[in-house]
User: Fold these one by one.
Assistant:
Number 1:
Amino acid sequence: MCLATGRSEATMDKTSKRKARPVILVHGGAWATPEGEREDHQKGVHRASLNGFETLLTGGSAVDAVQKAVEHMEADPTFNAGRGAVLNTHGNVQLDAAIMTGDGLRAGSVACVSGVLHAVALARAVMESSPHVMLVGDGALEFAREAGIETCEPGSLIVDRERERYAHAKRFMKPGQLDQLGGLASPADTVGAVACDADGHVAAATSTGGALLKLAGRVGDSPLIGSGLYADDRRGAASSTGYGEGIMSIVMAHRAVESLTKSVGPSEAAQQAVHVLESRTQGRGGIILVDSKGEIGFTFNTPCMAHAYIAEGMTKPDVGI
Ligand code: GLY
């Protein structure tokens, strides 16, 4: 288990208008990331955090920053999101994603979507250009076309690594079943980001291909507001990762955000949430958090969770796995 706050590396901005320290924290999924894939995961989260941070520094809001960071990981075939996502029992990519801003508790979410690289952009369009919070399947794709979100051939999201994982899984796993390491051997994870901007607004985003060999139509925690992510300017924002069935049972992201108080900071809130995941559901995963002052915390009970954060005053992201 690993904890950090990042406070020591950051210098607080002295400008009086600032309500919070601009910061972004991203993760690339909590699982037993194979030795040979770890460097790519660390490089990917490093670049994603920089992309998001640049957005914050050039006047973008927290929600702009988390979208940008997650889009970067969706386009990077290293991760189980967008291009590079795991395959379901029929050998297809089916994506879930969500985005939420703590400014007005607005959220958008999509599930079981094929043929879109940036599912998080589609989730944002649901939030901003539809009267709803969540769209799924063909309806979500129809909305993507209407909203001008770029669509693609579903097969173009499949990479050789995942074709091989799928072929191996088909031989050794039953559809919908956990792998031999209880879900840890396959990237049943998510990519995610949380951010706080100088105005003290917080946001969270998630995107995932879900669980390897999942049943067609299975929806994980990632697009579920409260489970995969949550954001409330009064407290903070969180993004969860890991095998979704346990995360959903404890509504992990909302639980963690609600536990933020003057005396419980993001590190402790993250630790408590993962403790509940493990003790109540035997679940494995991780969570990243930011509070509305820009303090961060994260933890995981899996062998790895690639992560990176950068705050105002830092010269480069702090990266780990
Ligand atoms: N956390 C991703 C999923 O279980 O679908």
Number 2:
Amino acid sequence: MPYFPEVASPIAYEGPSSKNPLAFKRYDAGKSIGGKTMAEHLRFAVCYWHTFVGTGQDPFGAPTLVRPWMSDPDPMRRAFDTLDAAFEFFTKLGVGFWCFHDRDLAPEGADFAESCRNLERLVAAAKVKQQETGVRLLWGTANLFSHPRYQAGAATNPDPHVFAYAAAQVKHALEATHELGGLGYTFWGGREGYETLWNTDMKREREHFARLLHMAVDHARQIGFTGQFYIEPKPKEPTKHQYDSDVAACLNFLREFDLMDHLKLNIETNHATLAGHTIQHELRAAREAGALGSIDANAGDELLGWDTDQFPTNVYLTATIMLELLAMGGFRTGGLNFDAKVRRQSHEPVDLFHAHIGGMDAFAKGLEIAQAIRDDGRLDRFMADRYAGWSGDLGRSVAEGRASLDDCDAYVRSNAEPVRHSGRQEFLENLINEFVL
Ligand code: XLS
Ligand code: NI
Ligand code: NI
């Protein structure tokens, strides 16, 4: 019995004039844009946690997302049913990748050994599904934040026993990822942060966090996992102050603890917003450090101050993201993972299709806009002209470190007042809109 009977066959591209809610209007997987297909550019992934095991529970009400694949009273049978639903969904949607946490895929057992056995059984089944469908694992991760043992953090817990538990969980999640041919492995801090400094040794906790990452890198080498490690910045939630708060903080952390060669960043739109940055800023900061790895594609709500993880529908946003990606030359190991959830009133399984189709169309359109802006060349030329002075004698001598304060003093004395130039912000906003409108 299919779990998504409304969707008889893979979602097709029907073009912009289609009125079919179960068709793509913009995302045409095989269409070539700037020498690569849309599918190759966008590398869409579906996340397991929100999409298949999310319940819609919130602090004010009970679960609303009562899924047909979650009805069996036995947790392991439920997990296998969920796996069936997930791969049916991936293939009907036509995405190439998925992402999971260990505990989304397999339930926690009575003890750690049983949890590991549960995970191994589900991984074996997922491996078969991957072979049958060709869907690949973009990244795996461990859930080091839901269980009460992690109430004071995982790697940053004051108790080394809890650190060891987290490390053991990472070992198995990493091995599961390796077994599934995962292209990457993500660390999201979860509860790696603090509520109050009255009880927190921040220096020690950050050192321990780095230690776990080094241990994971060592273990990957030992088992032959060559996928990319990622760290995912987020400023708050669940803790008041997370150690991996934004891109700049993560880069500093990676440099401080000698991890730059081993981790790149997985950047989430809603986390950028919560950090008081734009996603454009966060992507740019990571890209310029050579550390932009992957993207958790979602959007927040400007009126709410928490991680609402909504599906991205704003074409201006997706075009901005795609411009940064194209400037980097596209993804190498990463992709666009829909770390996004349907609203709790959208409780029917078909809503999951509407949500993902909308996000994929918005990104396809964003890709086309971004490529057109690059082909047009005016934006790049404006930027080149704006900084052209730096190719002259003065600019080069400063940038290359040959000029001293004395040299600058002499230059200013022998030249007239600098000429001011307009920043042309409105002109540039109009230029972008030429392609968006
Ligand atoms: C939570 C994070 C989480 C990570 C994976 O806010 O976005 O979903 O992506 O642990
Ligand atoms: Ni995320
Ligand atoms: Ni999030």
